[in-house]
Amino acid sequence: MKQHFWASLISFCSILIIGALGGSDTSGRNRQDFVDSGARLLQLQGEANHNLYKALRGHRDIRRHDRAGACNYGYGDCSGDRDGDNGRKNHHRCTPGKLTIRKEWRFLSKAERRKYIEAVYCLQSKPSLFTEKEAPGSKNLFDSFTVVHITKTQFIHGNFNFLAWHRYFVWAYEKALKEECGYRGVSPYWEWGYDVHDPQKSAVFDGSPYSLGSNGAPLAEREPTYRLLPPPPLPPTGGRSFPAGTGGGCVMFGPFSDLTSNLGPVAMPGGDINNPLRYNPRCLMRDMNPYIGQHYNAFNWSTWTIEESKDIDGFQSRLAGAPGSQDQRDFPLNFFGVHGGGHTFLGGMTGQHSDFYSSPQEPAFFLHHGQIDRLWSIWQWLDIEERRDAIYGTLTLANIPPTRNGTLDDIIDVGPLAPPLPVRDIMSTIDGPFCYLYQ
């Protein structure tokens, strides 16, 4: 079925959702149930998608400036569409007919899930983009994404381009799946809210052939709690103690139980911050922690992150804890936000997903950051005129070392994975190289 039909259907369903849910009695306990069930988040997504599709149908380009040169990168249709706002030649026009739909993992068909899994395995069979001298631990194309993330970590977290950089990074991964491995689907995402109580029964992690594999094997001996400290370059003070997770060892069965992780850890026990690209082959480990999921990734946290944030500083602060933010009101309560929560919910004390630097060694990383991008997209499209180009922060993690504020003209660099682009070209899911929405 054609994409433009689905886009039209989504727009229509969005209106129905807004009307049906908007009339609910959401006071008191009913209001809390409405949030806790995920219904309010679904309503917000419906409103955002309605606004997005309305912009597409009106052929209205939210940004009003030239995007010269990006056509050379091979993005979209360069045949000579005109920008309706300024009459300039537009390198790429996202239209309802071109719009792709990013779905949550459990709403993909089994065949779609298998195609995605097979494409990820395919990336692991392709040559690395780095030489042995450049990155001794990068043995394949899948590892190349981790190398880029490791080398950029202190310039893509807790700063102005955290959201934009990872949006482009996930897109580059999807591009590699398609161009290198013949994948014909789109990037799925992981809605943590469905899984916070029993992640091992999740369609994402139940270990079936249509999942991303199982939990890690339970450790025979472990402390009942562990302390999580901030990663370098943040000072190793403070932190917080959490109950132990439910796994900790190698993924037991299902897809990626046979994965060899070649890089990291960097900022976890056993890591080497001074030799971050060393070759360190081992199994993929997971340590699912429902306590962390329930306290940081339940539907109410995602909804709160969107609804309580009136500016980008507040949004980033709630989303990622953002210790470098000016908005510290919720940081003690939120600690590391849904972003850090999602990493530790799956990775726990031992898993690759918990390592601040080398977390893309976990295949679920890209679904997790798809969800992060989804929340940002929802927040943006609820007030696109004010929020499309909203950025906040400096060039470095928590402004260590001190640097200037970032701008829309700064360059997003993902190394050899995709061409560099200015931040302004990455601020909308229907502009620059992008043409997608979340369902």
From TrEMBL:
Highest taxon, organism lineage: Eukaryota
Keyword DNA-binding: no
GO molecular function annotations of the record: metal ion binding; oxidoreductase activity
Pfam annotation, one family: Tyrosinase
Signal peptide span: 1-22
InterPro entries: Di-copper_centre_dom_sf, Tyrosinase/Hemocyanin, Tyrosinase_Cu-bd
Keywords: Copper, Metal-binding, Oxidoreductase, Signal
Tyrosinase copper-binding domain: residues covered: 157-174
Keyword Oxidoreductase listed: yes
PANTHER family according to UniProt: N-ACETYL-6-HYDROXYTRYPTOPHAN OXIDASE IVOB-RELATED, TYROSINASE FAMILY MEMBER
Protein name: Tyrosinase
Natural source organism: [Emmonsia] crescens
Taxonomic placement: Eukaryota, Fungi, Dikarya, Ascomycota, Pezizomycotina
